[in-house]
Amino acid sequence: MGTIYILWLRQLKRYMRSHSRIIGSLGQPLLFLLALGYGFGPIFQKAGQGNYLEFLAPGVIAMTILFTSIFSGIEIIWDRQFGFLKETLVAPASRLDIMIGRTLGGATVATIQGIIVLLISIVAGFRPTNYVLLPVAILIMALIALLFTALGTAIASLLEDMQGFQMIMNFLVMPLFFLSGALFPLQGLPEAIILFSSLNPLSYGVDGLRGALIGQIYFGFGIDFLVLAGVSALFLAVGSYLFSKIQV
Amino acid sequence: MFMSVILEEAGSHRNNRLDSENNISIKVEKLTKKFGDFTAVDSISFSVKKGETFAFLGPNGAGKTTTIKMLTTLLKPTSGVMLVNGYDPVQNQDAVRRSFGIVFQDESLDEELTAYENMEFHGVLYKVPKELLPKKIEELLKFVELWDRKNDFVKHFSGGMKRRLEIARGLLHHPEVLFLDEPTLGLDPQTRNHIWGYLRELNRTEGITVFFTTHYMEEAERVADCIAIIDRGTIVAEGSPGELMKQTNTNSLEDAFLSLTGRRIREEEIGSIEQMRNIRKLWRR
Ligand SMILES: Nc1ncnc2c1ncn2[C@@H]1O[C@H](COP(=O)(O)OP(=O)(O)OP(=O)(O)O)[C@@H](O)[C@H]1O
Ligand SMILES: [Mg+2]
User: Fold this and answer.
1) Domains identified in chain B, total number
2) CATH number of the structural domain spanning residue B107
3) Coil vs helix vs strand at B101
4) Contacts of A93 in chain B (CB under 8 A)
C-alpha cells in the first residue's frame, strides 16, 4: 500500500512541478480545437453532420489523454537512463506494487489533463449536452488513461533507450489516434478502416466520451466500458509481467 | 548518534540465516556472468567478514559493477553461488534487499524531487516505520551535512552533495552492508576525504560492512582492510594492502598492481570518464 501510494505521489509531484510540460501539452489540443474545429466546421456543417466543434472536442480530449498516458508510461526509460529506476528496483518492495503505483500516478495525471482540455473546450465554445453524465465522462477518461499508461509501461519495459520512441509514436500512437473516430465519424468508411477502428481500444474511449458529452454513441456504453476495462486489465497484467523482468 | 533510533529494531530480521559462519557478511563462490559470448565476470570467489572494509580494485571494464549488480539482485548470475548476510540474492531477493544499502556508480536520485523527498521515498519503499521516519531522515541528513538544504531540489546539488545524499539514503533502513560503486569518482580530493570520513565513522561506531569499488590506488590502500584486485573478470590477488605488497615483493600498491596485472590503472581513463559525465550533465539540462 505504501509503495503504491509513494509512487503515485511521485508521478503527481513531478507533473505539478513541470509547468512547461503542462503548458506545452495543452497547446496541442488547443490548436486542434481552434484550427480544426473552426477550419473544418463549415464543411462538416454543409455535409449535414452538425456542429464540428461538438463532435471534435471529445476526440481531442481523448487525444490528450492518449498522448499524456503513453508518455507517462514511457517515462520509465528516462528513469532508467537517469539511474532512478535502479533505486526502485533494488528495494524490497513488490514490483507489481511499483508498477501499479506508477501506472495509477500516470493515469491520474492524464485524467487531469483530459479534464483541463474539457474546460478549455468549453471556453472555446463547446457545450456538453448533458451535464448529468459528466461523472461518466470522467470515468471513461480515467479508463482511457489507465489503459494507455499501462501500455506505455509495458512498451517501456522492453526498451533500453529513447531511440525506439519515435517509432512507437509514428507506428503505434498516431495510427491509434487517427483511426479512433476522434477526428471524423466512423460510419460509412471503408471496411478495412472500420475493422481496424473496432480493434482499436481508443475507439471505444472516444465513443464513450462522445456518448457521455454530446449524446452520440456508436458501440454503446456497455460495450465501451467492457472493452476499456478488459483491455486495461490485460495491459496491466502484461505490463506488470514485463516490468518484473527488467534487469539493469 | 543517529543509529541510536535505528538500533532499536535492528536484529528483527537477523534470524533464519542460512550460514553458520556468523562472522561472514558476503560469500561468493565461482561467480560467473556472461553477456552473450562475452564473460564479464569469470568464476570469482571471495568472502568479506562482518565489519570489514573491503575494496574491489580494478580498471575500467574489469567486472566490478557487474559483480555488485549480481550481489544486489539487479542481475542474475550465469552460474555460481552467492550469500549476502546469509541470504541468496537469487532465491531470497527481498531478504537480501532489506539487508544492504547501495550507492550506485551512476547517479540514482530523482532530480525533480527535493533531498527530503528522495529520503522519504526510500523510507516508504523500505517500510521504515512511519513514526521513526522523520527522525531518521533528520539524523542522517544532519550526518551528511545536508539538513539545511533538505527542501532544495536535487537538480541544484553539486556532485559531492548528491553523493552524500545517496549515502544518507543508503543508510536509512539500517543496512548491515553498504555497497558503494566508485563512491568518489569525479569528486575533488576534499570531498573524497569528507565522504570517507563519514564512512569510517559508520564502520567504526556501527560495525557496518563496507564493500566498495574503486579506481583510486591510494584510496584502496588507505581505507580498505582487504583488497581484491580484479582484472578482465578474474580476481588476480586478494589480501590486505601489506599482504599484497609482500606477495609481489613491491613496496607500493601501485607496483603490486602493475606486477599482478602487467599494467597500470591509467589516470587518463578516469579523466575521460569524468569528461563524459560532464557532457552528460550538460546534455540533461
Ligand atoms: N548489460 C551488458 N551487456 C553487455 N556487456 C556488458 C553489460 N554490462 C557490462 N558489460 C561489459 O562487461 C564488462 C564489465 O563491465 P563492468 O561495468 O562490470 O566494469 P567495471 O569494472 O564496473 O568498469 P568501470 O570501472 O568502467 O565502471 C565490460 O566490458 C562491459 O562492457
Ligand atoms: Mg563500474
Assistant:
1) 1
2) 3.40.50.300
3) strand
4) 125-127
